[in-house]
Amino acid sequence: MTTTSTHGLPAGDGDGDGTESGTGTNTAPGSDTTLGTGTGTGSGADTALSTGTGSGTGTDFGTGKGSGTGTDFGTETDSGTGAGTALGIGPAVVPGAATDSGFRTAPELRTAPELHTAPEPRIAPGPRTAPGSGPAPGTGPAPGDRVPFFPPDLFHEDRDTLLRLLHEIGTGAEQKFILGDRTRRFEDALRDRLGAADVVACSSGTSALHLILTALGVGPGDEVVVPALGCAPLAAAVLHTGAVPVFGDVDPRTLTLDPEDARARITPRTKALMPAHMFSVMADMPRFTALAAAEGLRLVEDSAVAQGAVLDGTPAGLWGDAGLYSFVQVKSFGMPGEGGAVVTRDEETGHRVRMLRNHGQDGVHRGLHHVIGVNSRFDEIQAAFQLHRLPGLDARLERRARIAAHYTEHLTGLPGVTTPPPGTDGRCYYVYTLLADDRDALRDHLSAEGVDTHVYYPKTLPDQAAFAPVAAGASAASAASGPGWPHARDAARRQLSLPVHHRLTDAQVERVTEAVRAHALRTRG
Fold first, then answer.
1. What is this structure's pTM?
2. Torsion region of 242: left, alpha or beta (phi above 0 gives left; psi -120 to 50 gives alpha)
3. What are the E-state strand segments in 336-482?
């Protein structure tokens, strides 16, 4: 089988994996302006955008500590805050452990020691671990000293801005909470950054997929070739249009849809190809562009996890008829809530998506419905917040890239471990994903050493109960269905993602590196 060119790796699922929730506590006495409700141990309680007296609690992005509890913008139960600086990016937090579902719990509140601020972003190599060395079994770190997979303090520095925006929009004369001027300015900012013809903000990355497929005329009787390894919306969005997803195998190195395998799945009913960027590696879009053109097919680019990635000079999302981004909390440009955007070079596609997201209205004549649409509108508070955070995106992505490069340098060649393809072209480093022969044992070892990891897709899509009947039916109906999905199934069994977010300190990155090396060299050396 012809393999794709090595256009990188690490990115997670298309939309909605690992969303975190929980509570934080606050000992601040007196009044507190919050976004939630809390009960105090004294005589007052804080409510949304109001104040109270006494030793009540308030929301504080899960970073407070004390005698009460409060909710915190859908983040996580926090196990402590840290005052150190993550290589010029911001303060680091050492939280509790993350589970497969993306939810984090912590048994106690602990404050991390201050960390020295490095003058420039760098990764110190540190000592290498010799075979057989490393901490003795059962001597792992205390629960509050874990290296978090998701940054628990992601929006801590932006708390005051978010509260201000909430107040401004909530008390504004227009009372415009969706599809207002801030959403328009956010769309314009992304469009100018990308050089796109149109950017349409919508309610989620999943919704964006459905909007694109509908706008391109995909419907009953059609087939769409999608990767067998990936997030559920890859198949569900196709099914919601009435079309059928046809699963293709992935390239064993990049873990993205293999163009040659996709070619073998094309039938007279095929309407579109839908490759997805996976584990921070963009799919081989030059080959998919050529294949779609040669076969007369639509090309939908699931770039939900790849904002900021550029391949051969073209930004992720702009290779095909349309692409998309997801802004769910754990993505590279995540926000405290759901959201997404459709990006396209084609003005007509953008215009149709814009109508579809708002019940088929054209945005000018309210109450006139030109097509059957849906409710996939964007929130004004989130639009303003994303505009606030957009200037810092490049620095955050650069920090992720440095961490990924350090992992690749020091983990490549370890027995039983395969690292992502090296390089920066076509990368966004949403996550960093290894293939490990003894994945579960490595995961247990890292957990014992205080390193949180994540398995994104424990099963391929055709092996999931929701889509197995579809896969079986497509295989029975088509002689071109192919031999199955051996590479996708192998990757589902072996993949394990390491922490790579920009809030990690050098010490934490080195700790992750040494823990992986210790396991590989002890068990295979």
1. 0.73
2. left
3. 340-344, 417-418, 432-436
